[in-house]
Amino acid sequence: MDNIPIEKFLISELAERAGTTIRTIRYYTDEGLLPQPETQGKYAYYNENHLNRLELIRRMKTAYLPLREIQQVMLSLTDDEVQKRLVEELSSDQKTRPAVASPAASGSGSNALNYIALLLKDQKVLRPQEAPEVVRASAPLVSDTQLRYFSPDPQPEPVASETWQRISLAPGVELHIRNPGKPDVAGRIQQLIAFANKLFRQT
Amino acid sequence: MNTETLHLHLDTDQNLVAREVPSQRVLEISLQAPGSAAQTNRVPLNLALVLDRSGSMSGEKLEYVKRAAEHVLDLLHEQDMAAVVAYDDEINLLSPSVAVTGEQRSQLKRLISTLRPGGSTNLSGGWLAGCQEAAAAAARVSSTGMLSRCLLLTDGLANVGITDLEALAVHARELSRRGVSTSTFGVGEGFNEHLLEAISNQGGGSFYYIETPSEIPALFEREFKELAAVTAREIEIVLEFPANVSLQVLGGWVSEFSQGRLSISLGSMYANKSQQIFIKVLTPPAAAATDLKISARITGMDEAGLPFEARAELAFQYTGLVSAEAAPKKREVLERFAQVDLAETANEALKLERQGKREQANKMLQQSIRANAPHIAASQAAEYQAISEKMQDGMTEADRKSSHYQAYNQKRQR
Predict the structure, then answer these.
(1) What is the pLDDT of residue B331?
(2) ipTM more than 0.95?
């Protein structure tokens, strides 16, 4: 096997082939999502396996998996397993992928319903504690039973960065609030905004 | 003008291009949707009303939303379908898609009247549930002429479910391709105008900014009327360019360019609606060629559900640099282009402003005002100048929204 020439790329070539950036590749390597490149002198060489891994990461990202989960998956797979996964996915979705990848199988064969179903499934992957079933109405109209597609996650996924909402109180004055905030604070924030509005409109 | 079929025309600000260096030209695609032949039988609609009932909607806003939803139901007939979804952090399917018969209508209205404000905003969940209902109804009812659209209303930031702008826009585009389009309605000061615009642009629908809740019913009605008058749908333009032409499509339309082939998806158009789409084209220098031909083909489905097709062509002629640059430009094309170009830049600048990059945003807008000033009315330049000044002083949420909406309407010619 050793005498079969392995195609090698420089980081810029890998970035180009995978449709990503050099910075992203370096970041993934640092985070352990990609194995270290082979070094020869001052050059670092990447191969097919890196390319496959980048493709799999891209697909998982378009399914909105958090980077931490992607990292766990990538660390657990061998190069052969990575390739197997890619092939399996391809055979279940014969159509070519759109330029901006969408999480669900795309192409004329899959209609809007399939698309949404796959999307909701992806959401479930993202938050496994959720109610697994989508409850559908059998009667044409439901009055009292309010159907729930999925309930919110009681334990939100830890996110890499905080989300802040900016509320402009007046030109040049802003209030920053971290999302999601505590419910009992929301009311007080509303009061604060109302008061600020009054205050700034006077001037 | 009442035309029989969809009208397609290509124009440019200047047909002559330079041999020696790349030339930038404006390519204008003009479209006009056919008038309606059937005055009585409008296209059956398949609507999903997706209503925000998050805590911030409480009071006046929610009351107007209820009124608007009930009003839309009054305008629908029994050949139409409607579903109602209410969402906060939970998604409540108030009613799956049903034919709007007299009985169902009162039932739907009764359900809407029970709406109470709740928690936070799972915009994506509500929206997808609405699209799902519309898609399910479309699959059940095999009426080919049915037009499926989700009307998504919100007053807040998407903070539960899928919240990423790019992701939501991709889903909107994919769902629109699969027959369910989306229009978005932003109420008040708490929503993200760029997110809602992206969903509607990619989703083949329209975006509405509702400054005061009392406008909600009128804007729902406008959306309904535009839908009811649709005479062309699934409109797609494919343009073929010779090699080495670079281009940029203005207006936020769904477009793809690869190997000299540009396709633009326009969704549907209502009777007699005219629309211009502008493309900035950079022609390659050429020593030997005499001209550079661009061909356009538009396809879609007419009112009766039958496919239509129209073609148009345009050729640029190569000439020496001096005569290419000296030749007078077509003023009327540039005037129409300048409106869209400036509006588009203004929206991009507003996006930057929202990210806190005020200086950069203002510089960008100033440049565009200067560049387009020769071709726009002084009053219009003054309006954008006013936006620029507000940017410098600091904008309120209402300023951001009204400036963005003004530019949005300008760039889409609404």
Answers:
(1) 95
(2) no
Residue B117 contacts A, CB cutoff 8 Å: no
Name the domain boundary from A44, A67, A92.
A92
User: Are B239 and B249 contacting, i.e. CB atoms less than 8 angstroms apart?
Assistant: no
DSSP B35: P
Percent of chain B at pLDDT above 90? Answer: 74
Residue A142 lies in a domain: no
Residue among B125, B139, B393 minimizing CB distance to A171: B393
A114 and A87 share one domain? no
Query: Which residue ranges form the domains of chain B, and what is each CATH number?
Result: 7-38+231-327 (2.60.40.740), 45-228 (3.40.50.410), 332-411 (no CATH)
pLDDT tens-place string over residues B378-388 = 999 999 999 99
pLDDT at B145 over 50: yes
A47 with A88, same domain?
yes
The pLDDT of residue B399: 93
Token pair listed for B124: 């994506």
Does A84 lie in the same domain as A71?
A: yes
Q: Which residues of chain A carry a pLDDT beneath 50?
A: 1-2, 92-110, 125-160
Q: A–B: how many Cβ contacts below 8 A?
A: 108
The predicted pLDDT at position A144 comes to 27
- Within 8 A by CB and 6+ apart from B202, the residues are B169, B170, B172, B173, B176, B254
The b/e string for B138-171 (b: 16+ C-beta within 10 A; e otherwise) is: beebeeebbbbbbbbbbbbbbbbbbbebebbbbb
Domain assignment present for residue A145? The answer is no
Choose the closest CB to B256 out of A64, A99, A170.
A99
On whether residue A136 sits in a domain, the answer given is no
Contact B157 A165 (CB under 8 A): yes
**Regarding predicted confidence, which is higher, A177 or B267?**
B267
Work out the angle between the directed axes of helices B397-411 and B378-393 (0-180°, nearest 10): 150
Residues A44 and A117 placed together within one structural domain of the fold: no
In chain A, the number of structural domains is 3
Is the CB of residue A120 less than 8 Å away from at least one CB of chain B?
yes
Would you state the pLDDT for residue A5? 60
Chain B contact for A6, CB < 8 A?
no
Q: Could you give phi then psi for residue B185, rounded to 5 degrees? A: -125, 115
Of A113, A129, A145, which residue sits at a domain end? A129
Q: According to the model, what pLDDT value does residue A42 have?
A: 80
Q: Which residue of A has its CA nearest to B130?
A: A116
Domain carrying residue A196: 163-202
* Cα distance between residue B390 and residue B384, in whole Å: 10
Q: Kindly state whether residues A13 and A57 are assigned to the same domain.
A: yes
pLDDT, tens digit, for every residue of A128-154?
A: 333 333 333 333 332 222 222 222 333
CB-based contact B405:B367 (threshold 8 Å): no
